[in-house]
Amino acid sequence: MKKWGWLIAAIPILLVVALCGMFLFPLLFMGGGNIGYGFLGGAISPVGEREIPVEYIPIYKEAEARYGVPWNLLAAHHRVETVFSTLQPMISSVGAEGHMQFMPCTWVGWSHPSCYGAGKGSFTEEEKTNLAMIARYGGYGVDADRDGRASMWSLRDSIFSAANYLTKNGAATGNLERAIFAYNHSQDYVAEVMMYARLYVTEGFIPIEVIEPSESGFARPVAGEVTSGFGIRIDPVTGKPGASHEGIDFACQAGQRIPASKAGKVVFAGWQDANDHSKGYGLFVWVDHGGGFKTTYAHMSQTTVHVGDVVQAGDVVGVCGSTGKSTGLHLHFEIFVNGRRVDPSPFIGL
After folding, report:
1. Against a cut of 0.70, is the pTM above it?
2. Which residues neighbour 7 within 8 Å (Cβ) at sequence distance 6 or greater?
3. What is the residue-level pLDDT of the chain in tens, covering all 350 positions?
4. Does residue 47 come out as left (phi exceeding 0), alpha (psi in the -120 to 50 range) or beta?
5. 3-state DSSP call for residue 240?
6. 166 lies in the same domain as 234
């Protein structure tokens, strides 16, 4: 029995450790509500007033009151999913439907016999809205407008159902990023939703400095110092002389928002090479200003616009970064005239 003595003596200690774990482990995940997310909920910001259709705001707030999910987070999801229900048709390539882009199996319930893979399932249109079926199979669809159906194509039902989904996937215990990730399974999606959630309330909105445009109508995009001008230079990556730099580099800080230099239409927003994020511009935006003029905003950490968006001077197109062929945080800014890159300096008053 002596050889078991040490184990018997250790039993009280192991019990204490186990009891402590039972109390402390849940606290690690509960987080005490939305601690660390000071921008969630609150008064609408100027960006929110400009972007969010005013008639949608009461619906977001009613869903917040019922499910405890901040209204601006629901607005951010709505913006990212369907640009406030303006994308048509609202059916994705994988089968997500409606205003908030639910997969049918998520809406009706994954325990339905036809649900597997991406979650499109096999349902009639009536089955997708059937409350008894949703209850039976554990779906997230909600009849918020009380018409006896839960429809992905009802704005009110969709928003309330999104709140229902988020609260049951972590939002109720304050783990908002986990809840957002569960919605789309992409960290880029989480970052984009959180960014819009910040922008839509005064607590998270920080006004950017909009520099007065020059006589040409183009404004300097950021106030940071010029770290590399237009023309021949030593390549900062290879160290070799004779490299042609066909834009201007401005210093910027992590998280700093990048505004459009002039009003126009977004004609590209994304990676120069989706398979190799270290190439070229990295993550960038092109804005077409008409009359043969186009601007480039490159090396960003995030883009905040989509192809087809119309922007005004000062509207945010992305966030400062160092993606692509870059040695540090900066904005690479270009102006094209009739398809040819030109020195931006005279256009922006440098």
Report:
1. no
2. none
3. 344 444 444 445 444 444 444 443 333 333 333 434 556 778 898 888 888 999 999 999 999 999 999 999 999 999 999 999 998 889 999 999 999 999 999 999 999 999 999 999 999 999 999 999 999 999 999 999 999 999 999 999 999 999 999 999 998 888 888 999 999 998 878 888 888 888 888 876 555 444 445 456 788 898 888 888 888 777 777 777 767 788 999 999 888 889 999 999 999 999 988 888 888 899 999 999 988 899 999 999 999 999 999 998 889 999 999 999 888 899 999 999 888 888 888 888 77
4. alpha
5. coil
6. no
Residues 267 and 318 occupy one common structural domain: yes
| Residues 231 and 97 both lie in one domain | no
Q: Residues 262, 212: contact at Cβ < 8 Å?
A: no
Q: If you search the block for the tokens 């804005």, which residue do you land on?
A: 287
- Indicate the SS3 state at residue 276: coil
Q: Which domain holds residue 60?
A: 46-199
User: Read out DSSP for 88-119?
Assistant: SS-B-TT--BTTTTB-HHHHH-TTSTT--TTS
Task: State the Cα–Cα distance between residues 167 and 172, nearest whole angstrom.
Answer: 5
> Would 40 be classed as within a structural domain?
no
Q: Are residues 183 and 270 in the same domain?
A: no
State whether 182 and 269 are in the same domain. Answer: no
CATH number at residue 191: 1.10.530.10
